[in-house]
Amino acid sequence: MALLAAAAVFLTVFILALAISTPRPNAIRERVVSLATSRSSEPKERVLSFSERVLSPMVDGMTKKAVGILPQGLMTGLRGKLERAGAPLTLSGFLMVCGAAAGVLGGLGLAMAVSLNGAIDMKAFAMALVGAGVGVFLPFMWLSSRARQRQAAIIKTLPDAFDLITTCVEAGLGLDAALARVAEKVKGSFAEELSITLREIGMGRPHAEALHDLAERTAVPDLTMFVNAIIQAEQMGTSIGQVLRVQSEQMRMRRRQRAEETAAKAPVKMIFPLVLCILPTLFIVIMGPAVIELMDSFSKTS
Protein backbone atom coordinates (compact mmCIF):
# COMPACT_ATOMS: atom_id res chain seq x y z
CA MET A 1 0.00 0.00 0.00
CA ALA A 2 2.82 2.37 0.81
CA LEU A 3 4.33 1.61 -2.60
CA LEU A 4 0.99 2.43 -4.26
CA ALA A 5 0.81 5.74 -2.39
CA ALA A 6 4.37 6.59 -3.41
CA ALA A 7 3.55 5.79 -7.05
CA ALA A 8 0.49 8.06 -6.90
CA VAL A 9 2.58 10.89 -5.47
CA PHE A 10 5.21 10.42 -8.19
CA LEU A 11 2.57 10.50 -10.94
CA THR A 12 0.93 13.68 -9.64
CA VAL A 13 4.28 15.41 -9.20
CA PHE A 14 5.16 14.47 -12.79
CA ILE A 15 1.86 15.91 -14.09
CA LEU A 16 2.40 19.10 -12.07
CA ALA A 17 5.91 19.50 -13.46
CA LEU A 18 4.56 18.98 -16.97
CA ALA A 19 1.89 21.63 -16.40
CA ILE A 20 4.44 24.15 -15.18
CA SER A 21 7.07 23.40 -17.81
CA THR A 22 4.69 23.70 -20.79
CA PRO A 23 2.64 26.87 -20.20
CA ARG A 24 0.04 27.83 -22.76
CA PRO A 25 -0.71 31.55 -23.11
CA ASN A 26 -4.14 32.98 -23.71
CA ALA A 27 -5.13 32.24 -27.30
CA ILE A 28 -6.76 35.62 -27.91
CA ARG A 29 -3.79 37.55 -26.52
CA GLU A 30 -1.35 35.45 -28.56
CA ARG A 31 -3.34 36.06 -31.74
CA VAL A 32 -3.57 39.81 -31.15
CA VAL A 33 0.17 40.07 -30.49
CA SER A 34 1.02 37.95 -33.53
CA LEU A 35 -1.15 40.10 -35.80
CA ALA A 36 0.28 43.34 -34.38
CA THR A 37 3.90 42.37 -34.95
CA SER A 38 5.27 41.84 -38.44
CA ARG A 39 7.35 38.75 -39.13
CA SER A 40 10.55 39.33 -41.01
CA SER A 41 10.95 35.72 -42.12
CA GLU A 42 9.02 32.49 -42.17
CA PRO A 43 9.31 30.40 -38.99
CA LYS A 44 11.62 27.44 -39.20
CA GLU A 45 10.27 23.97 -38.77
CA ARG A 46 11.30 22.28 -35.55
CA VAL A 47 10.99 18.78 -34.24
CA LEU A 48 8.37 18.41 -31.53
CA SER A 49 9.42 16.76 -28.30
CA PHE A 50 7.77 13.72 -26.75
CA SER A 51 5.84 15.85 -24.25
CA GLU A 52 4.49 18.10 -27.01
CA ARG A 53 3.52 15.18 -29.24
CA VAL A 54 2.07 12.74 -26.69
CA LEU A 55 1.80 14.00 -23.13
CA SER A 56 0.44 17.51 -23.77
CA PRO A 57 -2.42 16.37 -26.07
CA MET A 58 -3.31 13.62 -23.61
CA VAL A 59 -3.43 16.01 -20.65
CA ASP A 60 -5.31 18.63 -22.72
CA GLY A 61 -7.93 16.04 -23.61
CA MET A 62 -8.40 15.11 -19.97
CA THR A 63 -8.75 18.73 -18.90
CA LYS A 64 -11.23 19.49 -21.69
CA LYS A 65 -13.40 16.61 -20.51
CA ALA A 66 -13.18 17.99 -16.97
CA VAL A 67 -14.23 21.42 -18.26
CA GLY A 68 -17.26 19.84 -19.93
CA ILE A 69 -18.29 18.05 -16.73
CA LEU A 70 -17.93 21.00 -14.34
CA PRO A 71 -20.77 23.58 -13.99
CA GLN A 72 -20.85 26.29 -16.62
CA GLY A 73 -21.29 29.07 -14.05
CA LEU A 74 -18.14 27.97 -12.23
CA MET A 75 -16.17 27.93 -15.49
CA THR A 76 -17.43 31.40 -16.45
CA GLY A 77 -16.41 32.85 -13.09
CA LEU A 78 -13.03 31.13 -13.30
CA ARG A 79 -12.42 32.56 -16.78
CA GLY A 80 -13.19 36.04 -15.50
CA LYS A 81 -10.85 35.60 -12.55
CA LEU A 82 -8.08 34.40 -14.86
CA GLU A 83 -8.57 37.50 -17.02
CA ARG A 84 -8.43 39.77 -13.97
CA ALA A 85 -5.21 38.07 -12.93
CA GLY A 86 -3.63 38.76 -16.32
CA ALA A 87 -4.23 35.29 -17.81
CA PRO A 88 -1.19 33.54 -16.25
CA LEU A 89 -2.69 30.20 -17.34
CA THR A 90 -5.44 28.98 -19.60
CA LEU A 91 -8.57 27.52 -18.07
CA SER A 92 -7.52 23.95 -18.87
CA GLY A 93 -4.01 24.63 -17.56
CA PHE A 94 -5.35 26.00 -14.29
CA LEU A 95 -7.62 22.98 -13.84
CA MET A 96 -4.65 20.75 -14.56
CA VAL A 97 -2.63 22.51 -11.86
CA CYS A 98 -5.54 22.12 -9.42
CA GLY A 99 -5.79 18.41 -10.17
CA ALA A 100 -2.05 17.91 -9.84
CA ALA A 101 -1.91 19.81 -6.56
CA ALA A 102 -4.87 17.84 -5.21
CA GLY A 103 -3.19 14.58 -6.23
CA VAL A 104 0.15 15.56 -4.68
CA LEU A 105 -1.24 16.67 -1.33
CA GLY A 106 -3.77 13.85 -1.25
CA GLY A 107 -1.05 11.30 -1.95
CA LEU A 108 1.18 12.85 0.70
CA GLY A 109 -1.65 12.72 3.23
CA LEU A 110 -2.31 9.07 2.40
CA ALA A 111 1.38 8.23 2.61
CA MET A 112 1.68 9.95 6.00
CA ALA A 113 -1.36 8.11 7.32
CA VAL A 114 -0.03 4.77 6.09
CA SER A 115 3.39 5.41 7.63
CA LEU A 116 1.81 6.32 10.98
CA ASN A 117 -0.90 3.66 11.18
CA GLY A 118 0.72 0.92 9.11
CA ALA A 119 -2.48 0.26 7.16
CA ILE A 120 -5.07 2.06 5.01
CA ASP A 121 -8.16 2.80 7.06
CA MET A 122 -10.80 5.50 7.30
CA LYS A 123 -8.34 7.92 8.92
CA ALA A 124 -5.99 7.49 5.98
CA PHE A 125 -8.78 8.22 3.49
CA ALA A 126 -9.82 11.24 5.58
CA MET A 127 -6.28 12.63 5.52
CA ALA A 128 -6.12 12.02 1.79
CA LEU A 129 -9.40 13.89 1.26
CA VAL A 130 -8.23 16.78 3.44
CA GLY A 131 -4.95 16.99 1.52
CA ALA A 132 -6.79 16.91 -1.81
CA GLY A 133 -9.13 19.68 -0.66
CA VAL A 134 -6.20 21.83 0.39
CA GLY A 135 -4.55 21.12 -2.96
CA VAL A 136 -7.64 22.36 -4.81
CA PHE A 137 -7.99 25.41 -2.56
CA LEU A 138 -4.39 26.65 -2.82
CA PRO A 139 -4.42 27.42 -6.59
CA PHE A 140 -7.69 29.34 -6.20
CA MET A 141 -6.23 31.31 -3.30
CA TRP A 142 -3.12 32.12 -5.38
CA LEU A 143 -5.28 33.20 -8.33
CA SER A 144 -7.44 35.46 -6.15
CA SER A 145 -4.36 37.04 -4.59
CA ARG A 146 -2.82 37.65 -8.01
CA ALA A 147 -6.05 39.23 -9.29
CA ARG A 148 -6.28 41.55 -6.26
CA GLN A 149 -2.65 42.61 -6.64
CA ARG A 150 -3.14 43.35 -10.33
CA GLN A 151 -6.30 45.35 -9.67
CA ALA A 152 -4.50 47.31 -6.96
CA ALA A 153 -1.66 48.07 -9.38
CA ILE A 154 -4.16 49.28 -12.00
CA ILE A 155 -5.95 51.48 -9.46
CA LYS A 156 -2.63 52.99 -8.41
CA THR A 157 -1.76 53.81 -12.03
CA LEU A 158 -5.13 55.24 -13.12
CA PRO A 159 -4.95 58.85 -11.76
CA ASP A 160 -1.64 59.66 -13.47
CA ALA A 161 -2.75 57.88 -16.63
CA PHE A 162 -6.01 59.82 -16.75
CA ASP A 163 -4.17 63.10 -16.24
CA LEU A 164 -1.92 62.24 -19.19
CA ILE A 165 -4.92 61.28 -21.34
CA THR A 166 -6.62 64.57 -20.48
CA THR A 167 -3.49 66.56 -21.31
CA CYS A 168 -3.05 64.81 -24.66
CA VAL A 169 -6.69 65.30 -25.67
CA GLU A 170 -6.65 68.97 -24.71
CA ALA A 171 -3.42 69.38 -26.70
CA GLY A 172 -5.27 68.32 -29.86
CA LEU A 173 -4.76 64.53 -30.06
CA GLY A 174 -7.59 62.13 -30.66
CA LEU A 175 -8.71 59.70 -27.99
CA ASP A 176 -7.02 56.69 -29.64
CA ALA A 177 -3.77 58.60 -30.06
CA ALA A 178 -3.95 59.74 -26.43
CA LEU A 179 -4.52 56.16 -25.26
CA ALA A 180 -1.60 55.00 -27.41
CA ARG A 181 0.63 57.66 -25.86
CA VAL A 182 -0.39 56.52 -22.38
CA ALA A 183 0.32 52.90 -23.31
CA GLU A 184 3.83 53.95 -24.36
CA LYS A 185 4.64 56.18 -21.39
CA VAL A 186 2.94 54.37 -18.50
CA LYS A 187 4.32 51.02 -17.38
CA GLY A 188 2.36 48.30 -15.67
CA SER A 189 -0.76 46.20 -15.97
CA PHE A 190 -2.97 49.07 -17.15
CA ALA A 191 -0.61 49.79 -20.04
CA GLU A 192 -0.71 46.11 -21.05
CA GLU A 193 -4.51 46.02 -21.04
CA LEU A 194 -4.66 49.32 -22.90
CA SER A 195 -2.27 48.01 -25.55
CA ILE A 196 -4.50 44.97 -26.10
CA THR A 197 -7.53 47.25 -26.45
CA LEU A 198 -5.78 49.45 -29.00
CA ARG A 199 -4.72 46.42 -31.02
CA GLU A 200 -8.31 45.17 -31.06
CA ILE A 201 -9.47 48.61 -32.28
CA GLY A 202 -6.76 48.56 -34.95
CA MET A 203 -8.02 45.16 -36.11
CA GLY A 204 -11.45 46.67 -36.77
CA ARG A 205 -13.33 46.03 -33.58
CA PRO A 206 -15.85 48.73 -32.61
CA HIS A 207 -14.49 51.33 -30.23
CA ALA A 208 -17.24 50.92 -27.63
CA GLU A 209 -16.96 47.11 -27.53
CA ALA A 210 -13.18 47.20 -27.09
CA LEU A 211 -13.41 49.68 -24.22
CA HIS A 212 -16.25 47.71 -22.63
CA ASP A 213 -14.15 44.54 -22.76
CA LEU A 214 -11.27 46.48 -21.18
CA ALA A 215 -13.51 47.31 -18.21
CA GLU A 216 -14.74 43.71 -17.95
CA ARG A 217 -11.24 42.23 -18.09
CA THR A 218 -9.91 44.41 -15.30
CA ALA A 219 -13.10 44.62 -13.17
CA VAL A 220 -11.89 47.90 -11.63
CA PRO A 221 -14.84 50.16 -10.67
CA ASP A 222 -12.96 53.40 -11.44
CA LEU A 223 -12.01 52.20 -14.89
CA THR A 224 -15.55 50.99 -15.52
CA MET A 225 -16.90 54.46 -14.69
CA PHE A 226 -14.32 56.03 -17.01
CA VAL A 227 -15.21 53.72 -19.89
CA ASN A 228 -18.95 54.31 -19.44
CA ALA A 229 -18.40 58.07 -19.40
CA ILE A 230 -16.30 57.92 -22.59
CA ILE A 231 -18.83 55.74 -24.42
CA GLN A 232 -21.70 57.98 -23.35
CA ALA A 233 -19.81 61.10 -24.42
CA GLU A 234 -19.14 59.62 -27.87
CA GLN A 235 -22.78 58.60 -28.29
CA MET A 236 -24.16 61.95 -27.10
CA GLY A 237 -21.61 64.04 -28.99
CA THR A 238 -20.35 65.95 -25.95
CA SER A 239 -16.80 67.17 -25.45
CA ILE A 240 -14.50 64.31 -24.55
CA GLY A 241 -11.91 66.69 -23.10
CA GLN A 242 -14.39 68.03 -20.56
CA VAL A 243 -15.48 64.51 -19.62
CA LEU A 244 -11.87 63.46 -19.18
CA ARG A 245 -11.13 66.42 -16.93
CA VAL A 246 -14.12 65.63 -14.71
CA GLN A 247 -13.12 61.98 -14.53
CA SER A 248 -9.55 62.91 -13.63
CA GLU A 249 -10.71 65.14 -10.79
CA GLN A 250 -13.03 62.44 -9.48
CA MET A 251 -10.26 59.86 -9.74
CA ARG A 252 -7.90 62.08 -7.75
CA MET A 253 -10.59 62.64 -5.12
CA ARG A 254 -11.27 58.89 -4.81
CA ARG A 255 -7.55 58.23 -4.40
CA ARG A 256 -7.43 60.73 -1.56
CA GLN A 257 -10.48 59.13 0.05
CA ARG A 258 -8.90 55.67 -0.19
CA ALA A 259 -5.74 56.99 1.46
CA GLU A 260 -7.78 58.52 4.28
CA GLU A 261 -9.69 55.27 4.71
CA THR A 262 -6.47 53.28 4.92
CA ALA A 263 -5.06 55.73 7.45
CA ALA A 264 -8.22 55.45 9.55
CA LYS A 265 -7.96 51.65 9.59
CA ALA A 266 -4.33 51.67 10.71
CA PRO A 267 -4.95 52.27 14.48
CA VAL A 268 -7.48 49.44 14.62
CA LYS A 269 -5.09 47.05 12.90
CA MET A 270 -2.29 48.05 15.28
CA ILE A 271 -4.27 47.02 18.39
CA PHE A 272 -3.75 43.27 17.98
CA PRO A 273 0.06 43.26 17.53
CA LEU A 274 0.31 45.90 20.26
CA VAL A 275 -1.64 43.84 22.79
CA LEU A 276 -0.32 40.42 21.80
CA CYS A 277 3.34 41.18 21.04
CA ILE A 278 4.58 44.59 22.21
CA LEU A 279 2.89 44.98 25.62
CA PRO A 280 3.88 41.51 26.93
CA THR A 281 7.48 42.21 25.94
CA LEU A 282 7.41 45.55 27.78
CA PHE A 283 5.98 43.91 30.88
CA ILE A 284 8.72 41.29 30.83
CA VAL A 285 11.47 43.90 30.41
CA ILE A 286 10.06 46.24 33.08
CA MET A 287 8.75 43.78 35.65
CA GLY A 288 11.28 41.01 35.08
CA PRO A 289 14.14 42.39 37.21
CA ALA A 290 11.74 43.28 40.03
CA VAL A 291 10.29 39.76 40.03
CA ILE A 292 13.78 38.26 40.14
CA GLU A 293 14.74 40.50 43.08
CA LEU A 294 11.58 39.53 44.96
CA MET A 295 12.19 35.84 44.35
CA ASP A 296 15.79 36.18 45.63
CA SER A 297 14.68 38.06 48.75
CA PHE A 298 11.97 35.50 49.55
CA SER A 299 14.42 32.64 49.06
CA LYS A 300 16.94 34.25 51.45
CA THR A 301 14.34 34.92 54.18
CA SER A 302 13.02 31.39 53.94
Alpha-beta classification: mainly alpha
Mean pLDDT, nearest integer? 78
Radius of gyration, whole Å: 28 Å
**Per DSSP, what share of the residues sits in E-state strands of 2 or more residues?**
under 5%
Give the termini separation.
64 Å
Largest sheet: none
Low-confidence stretches: 21-25, 38-43
**What characteristic shape results from the CA principal axes?**
flat
| Helical percentage | over 70%
Number of helices: 11
Q: Please write the string of helix (H) and strand (E) elements.
A: HHHHHHHHHHH
Strand segment tally: 0
The total domain count is 2
Can you describe what's shown?
There is one protein chain. By secondary structure, the protein is mainly alpha-helical. The protein folds into two domains: 2-24 and 57-149, no CATH class; 153-256, Receptor-associated Protein (Up-down Bundle), CATH 1.20.81. It is 84% helix and 0% strand. The chain has eleven helices and no strands. The longest helix has 62 residues, at 240-301. The protein is flat, with a radius of gyration of 28 Å. The relative contact order is 0.07.
